[in-house]
Amino acid sequence: MELEFKIKRDTTIEEIVEKYPELVRPLMEYGIKCIACGEPVWGTLEENAEEKGIENLDEIIVELNKIVHETKKEKADS
């Protein structure tokens, strides 16, 4: 089964936090701050990564989409 990319460079941080809360911890581990004072950070994933000097965003996006895919699969199996 081919991986469907739900998270892209232009996906907003707010959308990620709202639709894919399972990604908050991995994003923070990659150094991408997505919540401040309990509220989502504004802007896109790409803008936030650029601000933090993160250069391997494409690799991060692949990993985030794998997490989304696995979470969706686990929910379907249960």
Number of strands: 2
Largest sheet features: 2 strands, antiparallel
Strand proportion, as a percent range, falls in 5-15%
Distance between the termini: 19 Å
User: Helix amount, in percent?
Assistant: 40-55%
Shape: globular
Strand order of the largest sheet: 1-2
Arithmetic mean pLDDT: 88
Structural class: mainly alpha
C-alpha Rg (nearest Å): 12 Å
Specify the number of helices. 4
Uncertain stretches: none
User: Which series of helices and strands comes N to C?
Assistant: HHEEHH
Task: Please give the domain count.
Answer: 1
Question: What does this molecule look like?
Answer:
The protein has helices at 13-19, 24-29, 45-52, 57-77, and strands spanning 35-36, 39-40. The mean pLDDT is 88. Strand 1 and strand 2 (39-40) form a beta hairpin. The protein has one domain (13-77). The chain contains four helices and two strands, in the order ααββαα. Strands 1-2 form a two-stranded antiparallel sheet. The protein is mainly alpha-helical and 78 residues long. It is globular.
